[in-house]
């Protein structure tokens, strides 16, 4: 599904929108297509110069009065992973007793397209921030006005563990609501922080075969909302594989189609030309940010860090692309 993330200093910021399904309030209704980044009215250097001279607050107030009222203001990246995790745990709607944050899943287009056996037990985790507000002018093509929404799939069997990145949307910059003229600050957490917290929850229930329905949802919600140490509370290993499914945006399809060429699918290994091409794409960079965030959170030295060792790219019969990234460990 579409996934928009800002790639800046290891912070992953997702853009987009989310809607709950009527039957299961915690699950998402998919959006189609990948939108381009919203246009900036000022360049990054211009924003930095003005902010540096007059301050962030004065700068934002000046935007409210003029044509630049909708400009996004870059916010400094929070370097402390504990603060970022705490910020998300304080905002997740998993505390809502009526939300279905965790449930069983039976299928995945990415797993099918890439020939991965679908295990008997897969867990879908879905959350959004309590302040989540989609852009009313284009809920699927523009970043949310506030907060974020995240839905991912996790599984495990004898072949290893995996995650399927489905929908991950996050407000990435401070801005001003065009309707209320109120300042809307970007959250401190990143999409990678949310992903690691979801992986922690999934990791705690994947081996409990008898845990289903309301009991599964309850345990997932307890893990998602529990205060935890970012370093010791996060699993030592990432999933063995990270998938990205239904990549359907016009620009992304153009780039990936150029890499794939006449091939229906291709594998890539570290340092190969295909590997370098894939890792230069938005989806490659987003996945690398997840790996780098995990390494930083766990405090892993270079000789023990996890890395993307290779993977696979394919295009299905509908023209959508699917990707698999294999996660290894140095040493």
Overview of the molecule:
With 331 residues, the protein is α+β, with helices and mostly antiparallel strands. It is 30% helix and 23% strand. It contains nine helices and twelve strands. The chain has helices at residues 44-54, 56-65, 81-89, 109-113, 191-205, 213-225, 250-260, 273-279, 282-298, and strands at 4-8, 11-15, 102-105, 122-128, 148-157, 160-170, 175-176, 183-184, 241-247, 265-269, 306-315, 321-329. A hairpin with a 2-residue loop joins strand 1 and strand 2 (11-15). Helix 1 (44-54) packs across helix 2. The two termini are 34 Å apart. Mean pLDDT is 82; it is low at 1-55 and 62-70.
Sum this structure up briefly.
With 331 residues, the protein is α+β, with helices and mostly antiparallel strands. Helix content is 30%, strand content 23%.
Q: Approximately how much beta-strand content do the residues carry?
A: 15-25%
Query: What's the helix-strand series?
Result: EEHHHEHEEEEEHHEHEHHEE
Question: What ranges have pLDDT less than 50 throughout 5 or more consecutive residues?
Answer: 1-55, 62-70
Distance between the first and last residues' Cα: 34 Å
Question: Would you report the number of β strands?
Answer: 12
Largest sheet, in brief, is:
8 strands, mixed
């Amino acid at each position: 599904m579409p996934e928009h993330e800002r790639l800046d200093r290891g912070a992953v910021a997702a853009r987009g929108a989310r809607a709950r399904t009527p039957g299961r309030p915690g699950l998402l209704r998919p959006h189609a297509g990948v939108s381009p980044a919203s246009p900036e009215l000022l360049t990054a250097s211009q924003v930095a110069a003005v902010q540096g001279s007059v301050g962030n607050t004065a700068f934002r107030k000046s935007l409210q009065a003029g044509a630049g009222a909708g400009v996004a203001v870059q916010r400094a990246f929070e370097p402390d992973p504990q603060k970022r995790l705490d910020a998300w745990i304080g905002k997740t709607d998993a505390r809502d007793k009526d939300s279905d944050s965790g449930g069983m899943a039976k299928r995945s287009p990415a797993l099918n397209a890439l020939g991965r056996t679908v295990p008997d037990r897969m867990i879908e985790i879905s959350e959004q921030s309590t302040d989540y507000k989609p852009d009313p002018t284009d809920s699927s093509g523009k970043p949310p006005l506030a907060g974020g929404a995240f839905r991912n799939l996790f599984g495990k069997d004898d072949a290893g563990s995996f995650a399927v990145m489905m929908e991950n949307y996050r407000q990435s910059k401070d801005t001003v609501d065009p309707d209320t003229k109120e300042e809307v600050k970007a959250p401190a957490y990143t999409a990678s922080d949310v992903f690691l917290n979801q992986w922690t929850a999934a990791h705690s229930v994947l081996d409990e075969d008898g845990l289903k329905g309301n009991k599964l949802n309850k345990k997932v919600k307890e893990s998602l909302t529990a205060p935890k140490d970012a370093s010791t509370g996060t699993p030592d290993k990432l999933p063995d594989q990270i998938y990205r499914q239904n990549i359907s945006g016009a620009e992304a399809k153009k780039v990936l189609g150029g890499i794939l060429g006449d091939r229906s699918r291709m594998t890539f290994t570290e340092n190969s030309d295909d590997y370098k091409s894939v890792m230069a794409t938005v989806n490659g960079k987003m996945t690398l940010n997840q790996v780098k965030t995990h390494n930083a959170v766990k405090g892993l030295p270079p000789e023990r860090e996890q890395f993307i060792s290779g993977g696979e790219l394919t295009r299905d019969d509908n023209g959508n692309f699917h990707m698999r990234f294999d996660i290894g460990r140095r040493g």
